[in-house]
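thoughts on these tokens:
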Amino acid sequence: MDTSKQENRLLPILSLLFTASLWGVIWYPLRLLEEQGLAGLWSALISYGAVLCLFLWVPVRERASLQQNFLPFVLMGLSAGWCNVAFIMAVLDGNVVRVLLLFYLSPFWAVCLGWFLLDERLDRQSMLVFGIAVVGALIMLWDEDLGMPWPRDNADWLAVSSGFAFALSNVFVRRLQSVSVLLKSTGSWIGVVIVAGIWILVERTGFPAVSAGVLFAAVALGLCGFLVMTFTVLYGVTRMPVHRSAVILLFELVIGAVSALLLTDEVVLPREWLGGSMIIVAAWLAARIHARDEL
């Protein structure tokens, strides 16, 4: 077997699993920053702003590609911006596990948007994998006290809207096949800075009185966390149908539950392990289907 071809099949899968793992634990450093006085909006603005400052040259260098794809590029950036900022606000204000569940209604949105905007159809195998993943998510995160996965407060609505924006941004990522991952990444960072900045202006949130160490930590989170996460998710999503990448990214639910178990006093129940196992199986099947189709 051609080694380079095998690597080309595996890299998108591994990149999505890697970014799902990071997103599953990113809530923890964000909460630590909030405890030190740095609110979620300012964390988003500073972290993503620091990354953006390093890549402002990209739209200039690739201005020809930007001009040719301006409208979908702008829509991708704004949807990615809302996705990230709304997710940060939701995970800081709401129950981590519930936020992840509502966010990961995104595979449903991805299937619908992929169907209507990209003409991507699910075959029987993909439909089965999608069904296993969704059922696994519902089993894993069902809680009689928390209720059905339907928005009930501000954090819930932010989580749902973030998941929809994530699916929408992935659709535009797929449409921008001729645009480099670097330019698409820069567009998403611009979107986050714009959304966070407007949100801060609307709420009239003053700059927090925090130490230089906290600001440095926010910058480090951007450069060591959000930068890598953006590259890896865009690399993976660009190279496979949106319904398939959405299923693989459900792995974040498992990581989120495990991180909540280890880092908080939350207890992961047997049914949650069962649901998580189903999600892992679905992600594995989606990866196998993708690898087979790339042969």
